[in-house]
Write a structure and sequence with these properties.
heterodimer; A: mainly alpha; Ribonucleotide Reductase, subunit A; globular; B: mainly alpha; 12 helices
């Protein structure tokens, strides 16, 4: 890079005495320099309410004449916060994977037509739903003040994860003599859907706890419905990502329960809705009799001829989904609903065991 | 009634419902067998047969994957960016895969221990630069995030690439913040934010946002990162700037290709861009008058305060000449040539002499 003539310019340097807190010495730990390591002094103070409308980094010295360009609607800590956001974000970074090279695609062998069709239908469904979980968090990122950048960063990692999930299922559908099949419309813009939530916690209860929770159980059962190492790998890697997303929802809900008790009843209503709709409806691949549940039954049973065997396994997965959902809601601090008769989950578990 | 294979044998258990199987034997294109190449099975490899047909308009407002059979009667989700010309770039799928291969984690891939205490004016300058770069990354994140969910599903390659771009923004934000807080310093004074405002408030469409976010701000940022890499105080900073440059390189590739596509496929787009640039250059010029970033960069380029006013400022000016050379080159390439007489002097002072002469200035 050429250096030009050296005229002398006047330097004001007034900004040097107008900076944020000085003397910060964050040190890397055994996992490198993590976000948790830089929560030092005032830089670790998370405001209960944010008046940062100019998008400045938390802890930077504000300019009085800065434009109010943020337009942030999420500016209260309990609306989005969770205590382990830094950890989840750093883990997401460490566990990035590539569907192009980390899935052993060459292990896929031709399958009987009914199995291939079931796999392709399930992949069509999963391609369809995975980017709900990409579209929706991305919308909330832009609405949240950067004073709460840690949860925002986890949501950005989720958008990245979901892009990869969408692509891995599309790849599987097109890799073995099949193709995409029928969309289910399970992610439509209807009342009570993940898309239409107008409050972050409402959205998170639907997306992270009930929606992704249900899908996580399916992914964890991937061994049962996979026919080769490529499919096993695909489900295992997706499950690892999905577990972080579910953890986000549970930890956020727990924070909300502890810090905003006035919103408990409202949140109970979101769970009521989730138990009526998302867990039971077409967004759940193991839900009612849908394209995806039929294809799952064929995969689990080992073919159309063993459909009834597959349905029995699917019911076992469904029980597990409901049981895991209960655990998550309890962990979030809303377990009472399972004891006081408000939640139909126990009856749903009993019905799926019949 | 004769039992069929879907009736249970157990008279006590409820019957297992018969599958409807309406979805079976229904595909717009079957027998697709995409094979992995030497770089694995990549997103672009999937664009075979009908799965590779990217329509000029995508009116389906559901999440029907491209090539799948849509379901009728599904209420719309409400996508507003639904034409190819508004977002497309042929390289999006390749850039997406490249972004995934070039993963990095600031926590562990930056050699933080290479950072040693710096003289206070230099540390303050580095921290000021990091603060403003953080704001640039924040602007990337918020701009992409507010557009991405509005993009129709038929163009999933672009949505997926933008997922990597906003994640790149998160990593850069994180790395710049970490650098500011690890060496006895802290964050600085927030930037003036006028260009951020212009980018975030662009409402005329994604292509307008791309014009400001990448063609204008992106060009400036890339050249600045290059100079910062060349004048880094330690290996940690060099690693941060190098990784950021890789990411910005992908973003700029997408942006220029998209703008070229948009101009080629939209009547009047070239003229709209000329107007946008005319307005944007004035905002950019006003922000350049702010002395804070300029002085901080001069100190970093000079390696300290002593020669910042002469040597450091000279390097800053050279950097700005490089910025304007690249900006004018990109504009020429896109067919929206910048004429010096229509640009503010705060920018033309850095324009290459040939550019100024050819436009009669």
């Amino acid at each position: 890079m050429a250096e030009a003539s050296a005229d002398i310019f006047e330097m004001k340097l007034d900004w040097m005495s107008a900076q944020g807190e000085w003397g910060t010495h964050a040190k890397p730990g055994k996992h490198g320099l993590s976000l948790a390591d830089i929560q030092q002094g005032s830089y670790g103070d998370i405001p209960e309410h944010s008046d940062n409308m100019s998008g400045r980094p938390r802890g930077a010295n504000p300019r009085p004449d800065a434009y109010r360009i943020g337009g942030y609607s999420v500016r209260t800590k309990h609306e989005i916060w969770l205590d382990n956001a830094s950890f989840l974000y750093e883990e997401a970074l460490q566990r990035q994977w590539s569907s192009a090279t980390d899935v052993p695609w060459d292990t896929i062998e031709p399958l009987p037509d009914d199995i291939e069709q079931a796999q392709c239908e399930l992949c069509t469904f999963l391609t369809e739903v995975e980017f709900v979980a990409g579209d929706v968090p991305s919308r909330w990122v832009a609405k949240t003040t950067p004073d709460y950048f840690e949860p925002r960063h986890v949501l950005l990692a989720q958008v990245m994860d979901e892009a990869r999930h969408m692509d891995v299922f599309r790849k599987r559908a097109l890799a073995n003599g099949g193709g995409l099949m029928s969309a289910t419309g399970g992610t439509a813009g209807v009342v009570g859907s993940i898309d239409l939530a107008r409050d972050f916690t409402e959205m998170s209860s639907r997306l992270h706890i009930s929606g992704e929770g249900a899908v996580l159980t399916i992914f964890r059962m991937g061994e049962l419905m996979a026919y080769n190492d490529a499919e096993k790998t695909m489900y295992r890697l997706c499950a690892q990502d999905e577990a972080r997303h579910v953890a986000f929802g549970v930890m956020h809900m727990r924070y909300m329960a502890e810090t905003a008790p006035e919103r408990r009843e409202e949140i109970e209503c979101y769970f009521d809705e989730a138990e009526r709709q998302i867990l039971a409806g077409s967004q759940n691949p193991a839900g009612a009799q849908t394209e995806s549940s039929e294809s799952l039954a064929i995969l689990l049973g080992g073919g159309l001829d063993n459909y009834d065997e597959g349905i029995k396994k699917l019911m076992a997965i469904r029980r597990r989904q409901l049981t895991e959902y209960q655990k998550r809601v309890r962990s979030a601090g809303f377990g009472e609903r399972f004891e006081n008769g408000r939640s139909p989950i126990k009856e749903m578990i009993a019905a799926s065991a019949a | 009634m004769a039992k069929n294979k879907f009736d249970t044998e157990d008279p006590v258990a409820p019957p297992i419902p018969k599958p409807k199987l309406r979805w079976m034997n229904r595909s717009n294109q079957w027998n697709t067998r995409v094979k992995p190449g030497k770089h694995g099975l990549r997103l672009g490899d999937l664009n075979v047969g009908i799965y590779g047909d990217v329509p000029a308009v995508w009116n389906d407002q559901t999440r029907n994957p491209r090539g799948a059979i849509p379901k009728k009667g599904v209420p719309p989700v409400g996508y507003t960016v639904r034409t190819k010309a508004e977002l497309w770039a042929d390289s999006a799928a390749d850039l997406y895969e490249e972004a995934i291969q070039r993963k990095w984690a600031p926590a562990t891939d930056v050699p933080w221990k290479s950072i040693k205490p710096l003289p206070e004016p230099l540390e303050r300058a580095v921290c000021q630069v990091m603060t403003e770069l953080c704001q640039y990354a924040n602007c990337d994140i918020e701009t992409i995030s507010q557009w991405q969910y509005q993009m129709a599903y038929g163009y999933h390659e672009v949505k997926q690439f933008l997922a990597t771009a906003s994640f790149d923004g998160a990593r850069m934000y994180e790395a710049f913040r970490k650098r500011a807080l690890c060496n006895g310093g802290g964050l600085g004074l927030e930037g003036p934010g006028e260009v951020n405002r212009m980018i975030l408030e662009s409402r005329g469409g994604w292509s307008e946002a791309v014009t400001y976010l990448y063609l204008m701000r992106g060009t400036f940022t890339v050249v600045m990162l290059r100079y910062l890499e060349a004048h880094a105080c330690n290996d940690a900073e060099r690693a941060i700037y190098a990784a950021s440059l890789e990411a910005k390189g992908r973003h700029m590739t997408y942006a220029l290709e998209h703008l070229q596509y948009s101009i080629a496929h939209t009547d009047g787009r070239r003229e709209v861009m000329q107007t946008l640039l005319f307005i944007g250059e004035r905002v950019w010029a006003r922000e350049l008058k702010d002395h804070v970033l300029r002085e901080a960069l001069a100190i970093v380029f000079a390696g300290g305060l002593n020669h910042a006013a002469d040597k450091g400022m000279a390097i800053f000016q050279q950097m700005m000449r490089d910025v304007m050379t690249e900006y004018c080159f990109s504009c020429d390439w896109l067919g929206v040539t910048r004429k010096a007489e229509r640009m503010p002097s705060a920018l033309t002072q850095y324009m290459p002499l040939a550019e100024k002469q050819s436009s009669g200035s």
